[in-house]
C-alpha cells in the first residue's frame, strides 16, 4: 500500500466508518430490490424517480426557508424528494395507462422535464443570496464526504426498511415476476404489488441520494442485478450475488473517493459496480460476449454443413461455399 | 437602431436560435425513436457522449468542435453498441441493457472531467447538465445595414453554427433516407425482404442521433437534449396518426416549447417584479413536459398502438 493510501486510512475518522457502513447497506438494499425490478422489467423507473427528486428537494427547501423551519434537515429534504418522485411517478403511470405512449418515451420525457423544473427552482434558490443553498447541488452528483452522522443514519434506516419489506414480500414479488397469471389466481393483487415494488425503488433511491446522487442512483439498482444475472440463472443465488455486488461496490467506491484526491463518490461507486458486469459479460459461459460469439459461429458452420449434406444427398451440386471463401 | 432592439439582438437572438435549431434536430430524430419505441436509446446516447468529449479534450488539448464531434459521436456509438451487445449476447431485456450502460458511461465522463479539470467552465459538471445557453451572447453592429456583413457574422458564437449544421445535416439525411427509415421503423421484415438493409439504416440513424446529441450537448446540456428528443415527438404522437402531420406537429410543438420556455426564463421573473433570470434549459424542458401532459389529458389520438 502506498504512503498516500496509508495516511488516507489514518484520516478516516469514526464518521467515515459510519458512512461506509451506511453506503454498504444502501448498496446491498439496491442490489436486492433491483433484482426484483429487473425481473419485473421496472428497472428504469428508478431513472425517473431519481431525476424527479430534484424539484421536490428544492421546493421543500424553499418552503421550509419561507416558513422558518431549518431548511437543511435530512428528514425535510428526503420528504420533499419523496413527494417530487411520487408526483412524477403518478403522472407517468397515468400517462402510460391513458395513452398509447410506451414506457421509454414517458420515462425519458418526464424525467428530463422534472429535472429541468428542479434546475429552475435550484437557480431560484441560489439567486436568493440570503439562503444557505450550498449542498443542495451535491444531491445531483452525490458526495459521501459531506455526509454527517445523521445523514448516514437516515440512509441506513431507509435501506434497512426496504430490506425488511423485501423479506416480507419477496415470495409474492417472485410469483408476480415469474408468473403473473398464477399470482393473480392465487389471490395476489398485481397492481398493488407493482406499487409496492415502485415504493421499494423509491426508498432505495432516497437512501442513495446523498451518496451516489440522483442521476447515477439508477445504476445501483441495475448494475448489481445484471452482474448477478450474468453469473447465475437461479433466483436465490441471484439475490445473494446482487446484494453482495451492491454492498461491495458501494463500499469500494466510498473508500476510493475517501482515499484518493478528486474522485467524486457517485461516479466511483458506479464504476466499481460496473466492474463485475464487465467481467461477467466477458467470461460468462451462457451469456458472455466470447461464448456467445463462438456459439454463433459454430451454429453458422453447422447449419452450412447440414445444408450442404442435404444438397449432396439430393445431388444438387455444387455446395454453398463458406462465407470466407466467397469473399 | 433602438436600444430595445439592440438588447434583444445581443442577448436573446443567439440563445433562442440555438435552442430552436437543437429542438428541431432532436424533434425530427426523436419522431422515429418514439415510433420505433426506442426512446431510451436517446437517453443512453445523450449520456454516453460525455466521456468521448472529455477524452477528445484530453487527447488533443483543444476544445475545437471538430474533435468534440468526433470524440462524442464515437463514444455515443460505443454506448449504443454496448447496449446492442448486452441485449444480443447477454440476453438482457433492453431497458436493463440501457440501464447498465448509460450511467456507467456518464460516471466515467464525470470522473474524467473531475480528474482533468475539464478545460474550464464549458465542461464542468453543471454545464454538462444545464448547458451554456445563457452565455451565448453576441455583439451585433450598431447599424442595421451592417447586420449581414461577414465581419459581424463572424462574431456569432460557434455553438450556433454547430447546431445549424446539425439541423441541416439531419434534415438532409432524413430527406434522403425517408423511405428506408420509414420502412425500417414500421416494418423491418418488409424492409429486409425488399433489400432496404434496415440494420444498416438503423445503425446510421443511431450515429446521426449521437452526432446531434454532441452538437446540442454543449449548448443546451444533457437534460434538455434528452427531453427535446422525446417530449415534442411524444406530444405530437398523441395528436395525429399520419407521419407527415407528425413531423409538422413535432416541429411546431418543439418551437412552442422553446419560445415559451425561453420567454418564461428571461422575462417571467421581471413580470413578477423580481430582478433575476431562470435557467432557460430548465424552463424549456419543463415546458416541453407540461405540453406532453396536456396532450396526454386532452389529445385527440391518445389511444391505439404506438
Structure description:
The complex is a heterodimer of chains A (327) and B (306). By secondary structure, chain A is mainly α. In chain A, 79% of the residues lie in helices and 0% in strands. Chain A has helices at 3-11, 14-39, 45-67, 74-98, 103-127, 138-141, 149-178, 180-185, 190-212, 217-231, 235-259, 265-283, 289-313, 323-326. In chain A, helix 2 (14-39) packs parallel to helix 7, helix 2 (14-39) runs antiparallel to helix 11 and helix 10 (217-231) crosses helix 11. The relative contact order of chain A is 0.15. The model of chain B has no long low-confidence stretch (mean pLDDT 83). The longest helix of chain B has 40 residues, at 198-237. With 306 residues, chain B is an all-alpha fold. At the A-B interface, helix 4, helix 5, helix 10, helix 12 and helix 13 of A face helix 2, helix 3, helix 4, helix 5 and helix 9 of B.
Biggest pleated-sheet summary of chain B? none
Low-confidence stretches of chain A: none
Helix proportion of residues of chain A, in percent? over 70%
Work out the helicity level of chain B.
over 70%
**What structural class should be given to the helix and strand makeup of chain A?**
mainly alpha
Query: Radius of gyration of chain A, Cα only, in angstroms?
Result: 24 Å
SSE ordering of chain A: HHHHHHHHHHHHHH
Mean pLDDT across residues of chain B: 83
Please state roughly what percent of the residues of chain B sit in beta strands, choosing from under 5%, 5-15%, 15-25%, 25-35%, 35-45% or over 45%: under 5%
Question: Span from first to last CA of chain B?
Answer: 51 Å
Which segments of chain B are poorly predicted (pLDDT under 50) over 5 or more consecutive residues? none
Shape of chain B: globular
Give the amount of beta strand of chain A, in percent.
under 5%
